[in-house]
Amino acid sequence: MLLWLLLLILTRRREQSGVAPKAVLLLDPPWSTVFKGEKVTLTCRGISHSPAHRDTFWYRNEKLLKMKYNAIQITESGNYQCETRESSLSDAVHVEFSYDSLILQASHPVFEGDNVTLRCQGKEDENAHEKVYYKDGKQLPNSYNLDFIIVNSVSRDNSKYHCTANYKILSIVSIKRTSKYLNIQVQELFLHPVLRVSSSTPIEGSPMTLICETQLSPQRPKVQLQFSFFRDSQTLGSGWSRSPKLQIPAMWTEDSGSYWCEAETVTRNIKKRSLTSQIRVQRVPVSNVNLEIQPTGGQLIEGENMVLICSVARGSGTVTFSWHKEGRVRSLGRKTQRSPLAELHVLMVKESDAGRYYCAADNVHGPILSTWIQVTVRIPVSHPVLTFRAPRVQALVGNLLELHCESLRGSPPILYRFYHEDVTLGNSSAPFGGGASFNLSLTAKHSGNYSCDADNGLGAQHSHGVSLRVTVPVSRPILTLRAPGAQAVVGDLLELHCESLRGSFPILYWFYHEDDTLGKSSAHAGGGASFSLSLTTEHSGNYSCEADNGLGAQRSEVVTFSATGTSRNRTGLTTAGVTGLVLSILSLAAAAAALLHYARAQRKPGGLSATGTSSHSPSECQEPSSSRPSRIDLQEPTHSKPLAPMELEPMYSNVNPGNSNLIYSHIWSIQHTKGNSANCPTMHQEHKELTVLYSELKKKHPDDSAGEARSRGRAHEDDEENYENIPRVLLASDH
To answer: Where in this chain does the record put each Ig-like domain (predicted)?
Structure first.
């Protein structure tokens, strides 16, 4: 007996724990209410749905019966249960053996959501008619005068059903009878779910698994269920799911609360809820805070982006990160997130961003600081500026010139290189920043363009070109005299040429005669400068010149010059002064005779026209007269052939060569060219040279005693009155 009691206790514990499925109790006939005197067979089925032999335990009103067979017959009312070794205690089934003449029967077994058959049965059923069915005192629709009805989708709601029927006695009297109230015994389709959790006190940030555990009735193994999970009335996940399991990736302190689950049938509206479970998420304080700089090492170039990474080795939940720089009161930035690390981006760092940094992390337990990290910002060099430093404003040959190159920005050390016309002169380093210099002892070859570049390993920068002009003082000039002949005479044009072989331009040259300034001339290029004199007897003496380009004048050596007193023109013409007039008159007479002879000849065919003019215009056959007389050698032999006859017209022009004592009248000048010969066919082809005839008159000299006073007062009139215009004649002897 004690053994049976122990087995019963263990079985009920298994039922409470939900480990073993319940056994199923079946009725035959399948009615839970029968008339007294009838028999009902009870059958107990386990998990295998096969009858159990000699291992079945029966209970009536929770009392163990001695019967061990899987099927028994009963005749007494009561609550019957059974169990097997492989299943837990079945639900209780109340079997009623009634003494009433009218009973309401319900089919068995009935599960939640099933349709149930109700039958109103009389003991003498052939006399019962007009049967009516009721639920909770209200007549069910469409239930009049039916032997049985079907109630759809019943539930375990404790509703009470009954029926009525009329009985006829002796076919005369009709008596209405009412059955007892019936509670339909609806069995659970599935057990109430139980929420299982992987931990009731998870660590913040750790995952959590929720399982909604239930069990279908062995008689309804194909019913489909769906599940949903809740926290404090808030649905978790995506809502209803066929899976009884929900995986939460990470739990946080705000996830603490009351959890439960629900299970329901997919096709029937049967829903059950589990009991609530309290879950408290535990937080771990942060520790081992670390700050990392990218680029690695904290070495940055101005303009790059910097990333400050703050991380914690341990710590859960929401962590607040902050970044700080030495010397600043306010933080550089702050972030709150569920992560063991956070980043702060500093865009385009500047020189002022260099310094020491640290970060802090806090998850409500107080901030934890990292160690300090040094950040260095290197600055590329700016375009350098090249300047010259010399003792004077002008750079002179022999001066010491300092070339100074400096970049106003750039991290040291800086290497400077110096160039002249793109040729490297040298280099100099500035280990602590600033500029650097390079020295030159100037020569004339150092003129040109200079530049420099600066480089601190972050990219070289080149300066603008700067032009330098090295000024060279003039050397001692050389004075040379240039005259027409070996012996200079009065009236010659004397050229004084002064030249310094060395010196920067422009050079101003001064010319002196016995220390008296004659004039000046400037030279903007090589070759020196000249000054011209028309010689007189007073021009004999000492000459010198001076050169100056602003760096100090240099004087030439003295050159002595002597001019002969007699003019070159007067030497050949003085003896002919008396005979000149006579020759002029004779020339006029000869010209007149020649004209007369030529006029007669032109009257022949091919000669002059009736008007007496040439068939060729003067512009075609003549050249303009020269403004300067040309010398003629009167001893030159004449041509053996006479000139071709042509009509000549007088032309006069006066020539006075400077300060000469002679005046010439330019009588005629013809320049025979090939063009002229073509236009003037009457001319002989051999006459191609210039033909000039002068008449010489002596100019009155101011030293003449007779007209000395008068000529001094009338200088201009003397110039006009001492000219004599002589008509041009073409001599046969002229060439």
So the answer is: 21-98, 193-271, 285-376, 384-471, 477-560
* DSSP-assigned letters across all residues of 58-98: EEETTEE-S--SSEEEE-S-EEEEEE-TTSBPPPPEEEEEE
Domain count, the chain: 5
**CA 166 – CA 161 distance, rounded (Å):** 18
CATH code, 487: 2.60.40.10
Residue 78 structure tokens: 């009561």
DSSP lists the bridge partners of residue 662 as 698
Of 454, 364, 370, the closest CA to residue 414 belongs to 454
Question: Which range marks the domain in which residue 388 is found?
Answer: 384-468
Half-sphere exposure of 202 (CA within 13 A, CB side): 23
User: What is the amino acid identity at position 349?
Assistant: V
Give pLDDT, residue 353.
94
Question: How far apart, in whole angstroms, are the C-alpha atoms of residue 460 and residue 240?
Answer: 69
Select from 247, 161, 248 the least CA-distant residue to 204: 248
Our CA angle for 128, 101, 151, nearest 5°, is 70
Tell how far CA 198 is from the center of its chain: 55
The answer to whether residues 246 and 210 touch, using CB atoms and an 8 Å cutoff, is yes
Q: Residue written as tokens 């380009």? A: 549
Work out the number of other CB atoms within 10 angstroms of the CB of residue 188. 18
> Are 33 and 182 in a shared domain?
yes
Question: Which residues are bridge partners to 105 per DSSP?
Answer: 119
Q: What is the pLDDT of residues 147-166, one digit of tens each?
A: 899 998 888 888 999 999 99
> What per-residue confidence (pLDDT) applies to 575?
38
> What number is the average pLDDT over the span 74-97?
91
Query: If you average pLDDT over residues 439-447, what whole number do you get?
Result: 90
Tell me the average pLDDT across 162-184. 87
